[in-house]
Amino acid sequence: MTEGARTSNGNRAFFLAAPGSGVTDLRHGCLSFDILAPMPLAGPSPYRPPWGFSNRHVLTIWPTLVRPRPRPALRRSEFTTDDGDFLELDWWMTATGSNRLAVLCHGLEGSSRAVYMLGMGRALVEAGWDVLLMNFRGCGGRPNRLWRSYHSGETGDLLQVLRHCAADGRWNCLLPLGFSLGGSVVLNLMARHDHELPGSVTGAVAISVPCDLAGCARQMERRENWLYMQRFVRRIQRKLREKTTRLDTGLDEATISRMRTFADIDGHYTAPAHGFESAEDYWSRASCLPDLEQIRRSTLLISALDDPFLTPECYPRKSAASSDCFWLDTPPAGGHLGFVGRWQGTHYWHEIRACEFAHSLIETDRGPAGNR
């Protein structure tokens, strides 16, 4: 990746390999990057949704309800955490093996089987990356052992997995990539724990991230987001009921049944289970927004300006403008994880974008200082 001229608004633009004058070649079912084409990593984004996808809720809901789900033959392994709990990891390997690995992290109450995880996994495998789809605690199909689980600021489990992969020795390039809550985990890790990361972590990607947890919690209470909120609440209530049958949680059925918002969930569960004083304390300490300027390895954040889950504070332009390592891409449309591609295309726009950025990391010396 070589630096080009600045864009009209003063932001940096870079050039990286992409076929067909910047259009990804999908004719043979394989993502390849062959010639140089401009890729702006800040400022106006080139993405525009297809005709008929102007509504942000349509963009958000369409992939979940309509998009065909890839059905790869994943290999599952169990990873034991330092505190005696476990994570379920699903591996999607290239046919010939690769020396680079992407570690994908899902959103709130998602899993490795979420269509956005599988769609990104397919794109990365076709671009030559091995892929690890990581399930947060209790999200892989089996309840985790402990009262605690995961949250937006919980970086320890991802860090352990990355260290495990680095120690394996097969991959000289590791890329953590997170969606929504998983993107918050990735950004917190890159900003706060650079000194603990393996040198092979050359960069990261985060998509549709609630950088400001307090604001996003209030945003989700808006009437237009009622269906999304109810979906999250029901899934979390179901898990909490199961936990109360095995563990001394301090929660009862009446409290769980009264949960309606993130303020309820984070006040009664997330905060006490993970060492925070209150929901507000959790939102303050786990939000990645204050620390983004501390990122020291090339990191891309993609968030649509019409995302119904996000507030204006979730678009950290100041941090991107002042950083040589943190890149912000804000398409005007895309909803939440809804960057629908062309009708005839297999891949969504954000998947191609992430693959282009990932490819730039292995073509440049702009990785961490220890790898230069």
Fold and architecture overview:
It is built from 12 helices and 11 strands. The protein is of the alpha/beta class. The chain has helices spanning 19-22, 56-65, 115-126, 156-168, 181-192, 213-219, 226-246, 253-257, 262-273, 279-286, 317-322, 349-362; strands at residues 2-3, 13-17, 36-40, 75-80, 86-92, 100-105, 130-134, 173-179, 203-207, 298-302, 326-329. A hairpin with a 5-residue loop joins β4 and β5. The longest helix has 21 residues, at 226-246. α3 crosses α12. Helix content is 33%, strand content 15%. The chain has an 8-stranded mixed sheet with strand order 4-5-7-6-8-9-10-11, sandwiched between helices. It has a 3-stranded antiparallel sheet with strand order 1-2-3.
Radius of gyration: 20 Å
Largest sheet: 8 strands, mixed
**Estimated helix fraction:** 25-40%
Tally of helical segments:
12
Strand segment tally: 11
Strand-residue proportion: 15-25%
Mean pLDDT: 87
Q: Structural class of the helices, strands and pairings?
A: alpha/beta
Q: Assign an overall shape.
A: globular
Oligomerization status of the protein chains: single chain
The order of strands across the largest sheet is 4-5-7-6-8-9-10-11
Considering the chains and any ligands shown, give keywords for the structure:
372 residues, alpha/beta, 8-stranded mixed sheet, 3-stranded antiparallel sheet, globular, disordered N terminus
In short:
The chain has 372 residues and is of the alpha/beta class. It contains 12 helices and 11 strands. It is globular.
